[in-house]
Write a structure and sequence with these properties.
The structure is a single chain. The chain is mainly α and 435 residues long. It has one domain: Up-down Bundle (Growth Hormone, Chain: A), CATH 1.20.1250.20. It contains 19 helices and no strands. The radius of gyration is 22 Å and the shape is globular.
């Protein structure tokens, strides 16, 4: 029988010589996640006080602008998820990096609420949103059997970014001022990262004649099965009709809302408890140190056990972190809080990254994750508000922390019952997304 090989697959010796490109894609995704820092709350936190002071804004107005900018980015994520399905992650990742650079540049020029709002909308939509969405859609296309390991490596980028970006921003602000610090971020993103992603990212292994995990199937039937598997998955509309989708989406809101609110007010929360403001920067470092071994362990766990167990553990760890924060009146429990929050973030982030493609397939992953990311960003937009309201009306942050404690408990229960749905067989007559 004549051997049939798709026209876009080069000879085997060429594949061997070039090596599996998935690890290069993972390295590029790692850089992208690390340098989302200027668009993340932990990366912005060092700018909050000096910007408020120089621009003569109230903390409530500044927090509201940050929340509105974050909220506006939720709609962008829902729209752009489909563009990842249609055009691939490469163009979206390069464009989002350019948008983050523009946002940082705008914040460096800000002289009032309008430019601050525009800057936050761009940094949150492109940095915290689209860059993360593009990388987390890219990696599942390149890794299937080793997906947990790959997402563990990617998770380390978030851990190191959390540990390094805040102190680097603080140092740059102390040396050059907050405006120049934003400009340095913008220049690096625009000059270095945008061309790097545009030139070297590839959307799927099939586009260059490779297969996920670098494992070429043997035989015509195996090759056909691998091609069919790449096209298997639910549409967003089909996913809407499944309980696990809403369980995962609802649970995703909780870490976004709670952690954003805590991180945004971290300095004020500790000083309100009579602890030094410098402790906030220390807790970010402790959080990243705790996340480091957890991230490595989670990659092993999700490749061997049901991923919902890992996600439940993430929500439970967040609840315990909030309890530790409520009880803390000194440095010891504050550090316990930071360690639990770091472990929680690693457990939930990697668990969710693996769960979405495992539950709903690769074919429409951009649309599905874009919706989930958008809802999560909506939660992040609301995060600072309950803390600000509690402080202004009740005189402290403790009531907000106590009230929000119920959320991770409910989310853990919802995720426990979110089992993988049955994926429909692929319709191979449908067109494949353009590369």
């Amino acid at each position: 029988m004549q051997r049939i090989i798709p026209m876009n697959i080069p000879p085997l010796h060429e594949l061997t010589r070039s090596g599996f490109a998935g690890w290069r894609m993972l390295a590029l995704a790692w850089l992208a996640v690390f340098f989302t820092g200027p668009g993340q709350t932990y990366g912005t936190s060092a700018f909050v006080d000096p910007m408020i002071a120089d621009l003569d804004m109230s903390r409530s107005l500044f927090s509201t602008l940050y929340s509105i900018g974050t909220l506006a980015s939720a709609v962008t994520l829902m729209v752009m998820g489909r563009q990842i399905d249609n055009r691939g992650a490469r163009l979206v990742l390069a464009g989002a990096t350019a948008g983050l650079a523009l946002g940082a540049f705008t914040l460096g020029l800000a002289n009032g609420p309008v430019l601050v709002l525009i800057g936050f909308a761009l940094t949150r939509a492109c940095g915290q949103g689209l860059m993360g969405l593009a990388t987390r859609t890219l990696i599942p296309n390149w890794f299937v059997r080793q997906r947990g390991r790959a997402f563990s490596v990617l998770g380390l980028a978030s851990t190191f970014s959390l540990a390094l970006v805040p102190p680097v921003h603080e140092r740059m602000i102390s040396w050059f001022g907050w405006r120049t610090a934003w400009m340095v971020d913008a220049a690096f993103l625009a000059i270095i990262l945008v061309p790097l992603f545009y030139l070297f990212v590839r959307n799927r292994p099939e586009d260059i004649g490779q297969f996920p995990d670098g494992e070429r199937p043997i035989g015509d039937e195996a090759i056909a099965a691998a091609s069919a598997e790449a096209q298997r998955g639910m549409t967003l509309r089909q996913a809407f009709r499944t309980y696990p989708f809403w369980g995962l989406v609802g649970a995703s809101v909780v870490p976004s809302l709670v952690v954003t609110g805590l991180a945004f007010n971290q300095v004020a929360i500790f000083t309100d408890k009579g602890m030094p403001s410098s402790l906030a920067a220390t807790t970010f470092s402790i959080e990243s140190l705790a996340a480091l071994p957890t991230t490595i362990a989670v990659g092993w766990l999700v490749d061997r056990y049901p991923v919902r167990y890992v996600m439940v553990a993430g929500q439970v760890a967040l609840a315990l972190a909030m309890v530790a924060l409520l009880l803390s009146n000194g440095v010891a429990l504050a550090l316990v809080y930071a360690a639990l929050r770091g472990a929680s973030g690693a457990l939930w982030m990697i668990g969710a990254d693996v769960a979405w493609p495992q539950y709903y397939g690769r074919r429409h992953l951009g649309s599905i994750r874009g919706f989930g990311f958008g809802v999560g960003v909506f939660g992040a937009a609301l995060g600072p508000l309950p803390f600000g309201i509690a402080y202004d009306t009740l005189g402290g942050y403790t009531p907000a922390i106590a009230a929000l404690l119920a959320l991770p408990v409910v989310a853990a229960i919802a995720v426990w019952f979110a089992r993988p749905p049955h994926l429909p067989d692929p319709d191979l007559h449908q067109p494949v997304a353009a590369t």
